[in-house]
Amino acid sequence: MATNNFTTTLLVEQTPAEVFNAINNVRGWWSEEIEGSTDKPNAEWTYHYEDVHRCKIKIREFVADKKVVWLVLDNYFSFTEDKNEWKGNTIVFDITEKDGKTELQFTQVGLVPEYECYDICQNAWTTYIQKSLYSLITTGKGQPNSKDKANADFSTIILVNQTPEEVYNAINNVAAWWQGEIKGSTNKLNDEFEYRMQDIHFSKQKVIDLVPNETIAWVITDSSLNFVSDKTEWTGTKIIFEISEINNKTQVRFTHRGLVPDFECYNGCSNGWNMLIQQSLFSLITTGKGKKIF
Q1: CA distances from 171 to 36, 42, 75 (A)
Q2: What is the rounded average pLDDT of the residues 114-119?
Protein backbone atom coordinates (compact mmCIF):
# COMPACT_ATOMS: atom_id res chain seq x y z
CA MET A 1 0.00 0.00 0.00
CA ALA A 2 1.23 3.50 -0.80
CA THR A 3 2.72 5.19 2.19
CA ASN A 4 0.75 8.40 1.62
CA ASN A 5 -2.60 6.67 2.18
CA PHE A 6 -3.97 7.44 5.63
CA THR A 7 -3.20 4.64 8.09
CA THR A 8 -3.28 4.12 11.84
CA THR A 9 -2.47 1.11 14.02
CA LEU A 10 -3.51 -0.14 17.43
CA LEU A 11 -2.35 -3.05 19.60
CA VAL A 12 -4.65 -4.85 22.05
CA GLU A 13 -4.65 -7.84 24.40
CA GLN A 14 -7.83 -9.31 22.86
CA THR A 15 -7.81 -12.17 20.33
CA PRO A 16 -7.96 -11.70 16.54
CA ALA A 17 -11.51 -13.11 16.65
CA GLU A 18 -12.59 -10.47 19.17
CA VAL A 19 -11.00 -7.70 17.09
CA PHE A 20 -12.62 -9.03 13.90
CA ASN A 21 -16.07 -9.13 15.53
CA ALA A 22 -15.69 -5.61 16.92
CA ILE A 23 -14.71 -4.18 13.51
CA ASN A 24 -17.82 -5.69 11.94
CA ASN A 25 -20.04 -4.20 14.66
CA VAL A 26 -19.81 -0.87 12.85
CA ARG A 27 -22.80 0.61 14.70
CA GLY A 28 -20.92 -0.06 17.92
CA TRP A 29 -17.95 2.20 17.11
CA TRP A 30 -18.60 4.41 14.06
CA SER A 31 -22.25 5.40 14.03
CA GLU A 32 -25.65 4.19 15.16
CA GLU A 33 -27.02 5.77 11.96
CA ILE A 34 -26.07 2.91 9.65
CA GLU A 35 -28.58 1.09 7.45
CA GLY A 36 -27.86 -2.40 6.17
CA SER A 37 -25.80 -5.40 7.17
CA THR A 38 -22.16 -4.74 8.12
CA ASP A 39 -20.95 -8.25 8.96
CA LYS A 40 -21.41 -10.41 5.85
CA PRO A 41 -19.39 -10.85 2.64
CA ASN A 42 -20.66 -8.64 -0.21
CA ALA A 43 -23.12 -6.83 2.08
CA GLU A 44 -23.87 -3.19 1.26
CA TRP A 45 -24.75 -0.51 3.79
CA THR A 46 -25.04 3.26 4.13
CA TYR A 47 -23.61 5.73 6.64
CA HIS A 48 -24.73 9.29 7.17
CA TYR A 49 -23.88 12.14 9.52
CA GLU A 50 -26.44 14.94 9.45
CA ASP A 51 -26.14 16.81 6.12
CA VAL A 52 -22.33 16.75 6.32
CA HIS A 53 -21.38 13.25 5.12
CA ARG A 54 -23.08 10.32 3.41
CA CYS A 55 -21.52 7.22 1.91
CA LYS A 56 -22.46 3.79 0.58
CA ILE A 57 -20.10 0.92 1.33
CA LYS A 58 -19.74 -2.67 0.10
CA ILE A 59 -17.83 -5.37 1.97
CA ARG A 60 -15.36 -6.56 -0.67
CA GLU A 61 -13.18 -8.91 1.42
CA PHE A 62 -14.15 -10.77 4.57
CA VAL A 63 -11.51 -13.17 5.94
CA ALA A 64 -12.42 -14.32 9.44
CA ASP A 65 -10.05 -13.00 12.13
CA LYS A 66 -7.62 -11.67 9.51
CA LYS A 67 -8.96 -9.04 7.17
CA VAL A 68 -11.95 -6.87 6.24
CA VAL A 69 -12.02 -4.62 3.18
CA TRP A 70 -14.74 -2.11 2.32
CA LEU A 71 -15.23 -0.43 -1.05
CA VAL A 72 -16.76 3.05 -1.05
CA LEU A 73 -19.40 2.86 -3.79
CA ASP A 74 -20.70 6.38 -3.37
CA ASN A 75 -19.90 9.41 -1.22
CA TYR A 76 -21.07 12.94 -0.48
CA PHE A 77 -19.37 15.68 1.56
CA SER A 78 -21.06 19.03 2.14
CA PHE A 79 -17.78 20.79 2.91
CA THR A 80 -15.54 19.98 -0.08
CA GLU A 81 -15.53 21.19 -3.67
CA ASP A 82 -15.40 17.59 -4.93
CA LYS A 83 -18.36 16.13 -3.05
CA ASN A 84 -17.36 12.57 -4.06
CA GLU A 85 -13.77 12.53 -2.77
CA TRP A 86 -14.03 9.10 -1.07
CA LYS A 87 -15.75 7.36 -4.00
CA GLY A 88 -13.71 4.37 -5.19
CA ASN A 89 -11.50 4.30 -2.07
CA THR A 90 -11.00 1.04 -0.19
CA ILE A 91 -10.96 0.88 3.60
CA VAL A 92 -8.79 -1.96 4.89
CA PHE A 93 -8.60 -3.59 8.32
CA ASP A 94 -5.59 -5.94 8.63
CA ILE A 95 -5.46 -8.13 11.74
CA THR A 96 -2.26 -9.90 12.79
CA GLU A 97 -0.88 -11.54 15.92
CA LYS A 98 2.18 -9.82 17.33
CA ASP A 99 4.10 -10.87 20.44
CA GLY A 100 1.05 -12.46 22.03
CA LYS A 101 -1.16 -9.45 21.24
CA THR A 102 -3.35 -8.50 18.31
CA GLU A 103 -2.39 -5.69 15.97
CA LEU A 104 -4.99 -3.90 13.87
CA GLN A 105 -3.83 -1.74 10.99
CA PHE A 106 -6.46 0.52 9.47
CA THR A 107 -5.79 2.03 6.03
CA GLN A 108 -7.97 4.07 3.71
CA VAL A 109 -6.43 3.51 0.30
CA GLY A 110 -7.00 6.73 -1.62
CA LEU A 111 -7.31 9.07 1.35
CA VAL A 112 -4.18 11.13 0.68
CA PRO A 113 -2.97 14.61 1.73
CA GLU A 114 -4.01 16.03 -1.65
CA TYR A 115 -7.67 15.48 -0.69
CA GLU A 116 -9.46 18.62 0.46
CA CYS A 117 -11.06 16.56 3.25
CA TYR A 118 -7.77 15.02 4.38
CA ASP A 119 -7.21 16.93 7.64
CA ILE A 120 -10.79 16.51 8.82
CA CYS A 121 -11.05 12.88 7.67
CA GLN A 122 -7.75 11.72 9.16
CA ASN A 123 -8.61 13.38 12.47
CA ALA A 124 -12.02 11.75 12.50
CA TRP A 125 -10.69 8.29 11.57
CA THR A 126 -7.93 8.48 14.18
CA THR A 127 -10.53 9.19 16.85
CA TYR A 128 -12.96 6.51 15.66
CA ILE A 129 -10.20 3.87 15.47
CA GLN A 130 -7.89 4.84 18.34
CA LYS A 131 -10.65 5.74 20.79
CA SER A 132 -14.06 4.34 19.83
CA LEU A 133 -13.08 1.06 18.17
CA TYR A 134 -10.26 0.57 20.70
CA SER A 135 -12.80 1.02 23.50
CA LEU A 136 -15.26 -1.40 21.87
CA ILE A 137 -12.52 -4.04 21.55
CA THR A 138 -11.10 -3.60 25.05
CA THR A 139 -14.21 -2.80 27.12
CA GLY A 140 -17.15 -3.95 24.98
CA LYS A 141 -18.48 -0.42 24.57
CA GLY A 142 -17.51 2.04 21.86
CA GLN A 143 -18.34 5.72 21.40
CA PRO A 144 -20.19 5.89 18.07
CA ASN A 145 -22.16 8.83 16.71
CA SER A 146 -25.53 8.77 18.43
CA LYS A 147 -28.81 8.27 16.60
CA ASP A 148 -30.52 10.72 18.96
CA LYS A 149 -29.59 14.06 17.40
CA ALA A 150 -32.57 16.14 18.49
CA ASN A 151 -31.06 17.20 21.81
CA ALA A 152 -27.40 16.63 20.99
CA ASP A 153 -24.99 19.49 21.65
CA PHE A 154 -22.66 20.24 18.76
CA SER A 155 -19.31 18.52 19.26
CA THR A 156 -16.22 17.80 17.20
CA ILE A 157 -12.82 16.23 17.89
CA ILE A 158 -9.25 16.72 16.70
CA LEU A 159 -6.20 14.58 17.43
CA VAL A 160 -2.63 15.94 17.20
CA ASN A 161 0.95 14.94 17.95
CA GLN A 162 1.61 18.01 20.13
CA THR A 163 1.57 17.89 23.94
CA PRO A 164 -1.49 18.77 26.07
CA GLU A 165 0.37 21.92 27.19
CA GLU A 166 0.92 23.06 23.59
CA VAL A 167 -2.73 22.37 22.81
CA TYR A 168 -3.93 24.22 25.91
CA ASN A 169 -1.82 27.28 25.07
CA ALA A 170 -3.05 27.33 21.46
CA ILE A 171 -6.72 27.21 22.46
CA ASN A 172 -6.22 30.11 24.86
CA ASN A 173 -4.65 32.15 22.05
CA VAL A 174 -8.17 32.75 20.75
CA ALA A 175 -7.34 35.61 18.37
CA ALA A 176 -4.93 33.34 16.48
CA TRP A 177 -7.62 30.83 15.40
CA TRP A 178 -11.16 32.25 15.91
CA GLN A 179 -11.39 34.65 13.01
CA GLY A 180 -12.92 38.03 13.56
CA GLU A 181 -12.22 40.85 16.00
CA ILE A 182 -11.34 39.78 19.56
CA LYS A 183 -11.28 42.29 22.41
CA GLY A 184 -10.27 41.40 25.94
CA SER A 185 -8.15 38.78 27.70
CA THR A 186 -8.82 35.11 26.96
CA ASN A 187 -6.46 33.04 29.10
CA LYS A 188 -7.23 33.63 32.79
CA LEU A 189 -10.13 32.49 34.96
CA ASN A 190 -12.98 35.05 34.95
CA ASP A 191 -11.52 36.87 31.96
CA GLU A 192 -14.16 38.33 29.65
CA PHE A 193 -13.71 38.88 25.95
CA GLU A 194 -15.80 39.95 22.98
CA TYR A 195 -15.90 38.42 19.52
CA ARG A 196 -17.23 40.24 16.47
CA MET A 197 -17.47 39.20 12.81
CA GLN A 198 -18.49 42.35 10.93
CA ASP A 199 -22.19 42.97 11.59
CA ILE A 200 -23.01 39.26 11.35
CA HIS A 201 -22.06 37.94 14.77
CA PHE A 202 -21.29 39.42 18.16
CA SER A 203 -20.78 37.45 21.37
CA LYS A 204 -19.32 38.07 24.81
CA GLN A 205 -17.61 35.20 26.61
CA LYS A 206 -16.51 34.70 30.21
CA VAL A 207 -13.83 32.14 31.09
CA ILE A 208 -15.48 29.97 33.77
CA ASP A 209 -13.17 26.95 33.91
CA LEU A 210 -9.43 26.60 33.39
CA VAL A 211 -7.60 23.41 34.34
CA PRO A 212 -4.12 23.64 32.81
CA ASN A 213 -3.64 21.13 29.99
CA GLU A 214 -7.07 19.55 30.66
CA THR A 215 -10.13 21.81 30.42
CA ILE A 216 -11.17 25.24 29.17
CA ALA A 217 -14.77 26.50 29.37
CA TRP A 218 -16.50 29.73 28.47
CA VAL A 219 -20.07 30.86 29.09
CA ILE A 220 -21.71 33.16 26.53
CA THR A 221 -23.04 36.11 28.52
CA ASP A 222 -24.35 38.10 25.55
CA SER A 223 -24.84 37.49 21.83
CA SER A 224 -26.32 38.92 18.66
CA LEU A 225 -26.64 36.90 15.44
CA ASN A 226 -28.07 38.94 12.59
CA PHE A 227 -29.16 35.97 10.46
CA VAL A 228 -31.72 34.36 12.81
CA SER A 229 -35.04 35.44 14.33
CA ASP A 230 -33.80 35.06 17.91
CA LYS A 231 -30.64 37.17 17.80
CA THR A 232 -29.60 35.93 21.28
CA GLU A 233 -29.62 32.17 20.58
CA TRP A 234 -26.08 31.76 21.91
CA THR A 235 -26.67 33.63 25.17
CA GLY A 236 -26.36 31.27 28.14
CA THR A 237 -24.70 28.48 26.12
CA LYS A 238 -21.25 27.16 27.03
CA ILE A 239 -18.16 26.38 24.96
CA ILE A 240 -15.99 23.58 26.35
CA PHE A 241 -12.59 22.22 25.33
CA GLU A 242 -11.59 18.88 26.90
CA ILE A 243 -7.95 17.86 26.43
CA SER A 244 -6.77 14.27 26.95
CA GLU A 245 -3.91 11.97 25.98
CA ILE A 246 -4.73 8.96 23.79
CA ASN A 247 -2.04 6.55 22.61
CA ASN A 248 0.73 9.18 22.77
CA LYS A 249 -1.37 11.77 20.97
CA THR A 250 -3.45 14.65 22.32
CA GLN A 251 -7.18 14.79 21.72
CA VAL A 252 -9.29 17.94 21.88
CA ARG A 253 -13.03 17.43 22.25
CA PHE A 254 -14.83 20.68 21.47
CA THR A 255 -18.46 21.00 22.60
CA HIS A 256 -20.80 23.95 22.24
CA ARG A 257 -23.24 22.99 24.97
CA GLY A 258 -26.67 24.34 24.11
CA LEU A 259 -26.01 24.58 20.37
CA VAL A 260 -28.55 21.94 19.31
CA PRO A 261 -30.30 21.11 16.01
CA ASP A 262 -33.44 22.95 17.14
CA PHE A 263 -31.52 26.24 16.98
CA GLU A 264 -32.19 28.25 13.82
CA CYS A 265 -28.46 28.98 13.59
CA TYR A 266 -27.43 25.33 14.04
CA ASN A 267 -26.41 24.48 10.46
CA GLY A 268 -24.45 27.67 9.91
CA CYS A 269 -22.87 27.66 13.37
CA SER A 270 -21.96 23.96 13.36
CA ASN A 271 -20.36 24.28 9.91
CA GLY A 272 -18.48 27.35 11.11
CA TRP A 273 -17.22 25.60 14.23
CA ASN A 274 -16.20 22.53 12.21
CA MET A 275 -14.01 24.66 9.96
CA LEU A 276 -12.56 26.71 12.82
CA ILE A 277 -11.69 23.70 14.98
CA GLN A 278 -10.75 21.17 12.30
CA GLN A 279 -8.79 23.61 10.14
CA SER A 280 -7.80 26.84 11.91
CA LEU A 281 -7.21 25.60 15.46
CA PHE A 282 -5.69 22.37 14.12
CA SER A 283 -3.29 24.44 11.99
CA LEU A 284 -2.38 26.69 14.93
CA ILE A 285 -1.57 23.68 17.11
CA THR A 286 0.39 21.78 14.47
CA THR A 287 2.14 24.60 12.59
CA GLY A 288 2.01 27.57 14.96
CA LYS A 289 -0.24 29.55 12.60
CA GLY A 290 -4.04 29.53 12.35
CA LYS A 291 -5.72 29.11 8.99
CA LYS A 292 -7.87 31.82 7.41
CA ILE A 293 -11.36 30.38 6.90
CA PHE A 294 -13.74 33.29 6.42
Answers
A1: 40, 45, 32
A2: 89
Give 96-141 as a DSSP string.
EEETTEEEEEEEEET--TTSTTHHHHHHHHHHIIIIIIHHHHHHS-
- In angstroms, rounded to a whole number, what is the distance separating the alpha carbons of residues 91 and 156? 22
For 98-108, how does the pLDDT look when each residue is reduced to its tens digit (9 = 90+)?
A: 999 999 999 99
Reduced to 3 DSSP states, what percent helix, strand and coil does the chain have, rounded to the nearest 5? 25, 40, 40
For CATH 3.30.530.20, list the domain ranges present in the chain. 6-139, 154-287
Say how far apart CA 269 and CA 251 lie, in whole Å.
Answer: 22
- Spatial distance between the Cα atoms of 75 and 253, rounded to a whole number of angstroms: 26
Residue by residue, DSSP assigns 161-184 as SS-HHHHHHHHH-GGGTS-SEEEE
Architecture of the domain delimited by 154-287: 2-Layer Sandwich (3.30)
Closest by CA position to 124, among listed 293, 282, 289: 282
Give strand pairing partners of 67. Answer: 63, 94
To 5 degrees, how large is the angle CA 239–CA 52–CA 105?
90
Give pTM, 2 decimals.
Answer: 0.62
Pick the CATH number of 6-139 from 1.10.530.10, 3.30.530.20, 3.40.710.10, 3.40.630.30: 3.30.530.20
Burial class (CB in 10 A: 0-12, 13-18, 19+), 18: middle
The angle subtended at Cα 170 by Cα 166 and Cα 176, nearest 5°, is 150
Q: What are phi and psi of 116, to 5 degrees?
A: -65, -35
DSSP state letter for 281: I
pLDDT band at 148 (very low <50, low <70, confident <90, very high): low
What one-character DSSP code corresponds to residue 26? G
